[in-house]
Amino acid sequence: MNMLTAEYNYEKDMAVQRQEAAELATRNVIQKVEMAANKAATQKEMEIAKKMLDKGLQINDVFLYTGIPMDRIIEIQKSIKKR
Hints:
- The chain has 3 helices and no strands.
- The protein is mainly alpha-helical and 83 residues long.
- It has one domain (10-82).
- Helix 1 (10-54) packs antiparallel against helix 2 and helix 2 (59-66) packs across helix 3.
- The longest helix is centred in the middle third of the chain and has 45 residues, at 10-54.
């Protein structure tokens, strides 16, 4: 049936809009949870990297075991040396 000649159904339209809004809200919540989990994992990796550097491991080893970018590892190492 042609949409221009079909009858508009307010209840159906509102139900579709509510469903779309609920799906968007769910995606937003999932995205925020994933971001928080990633942030927590990153913070944990940074703590591990600090401990590894404190124990005298080389930057290359810290990179190999943690996957933290080299420039971040160097920053961590500099912050340790400033103490």
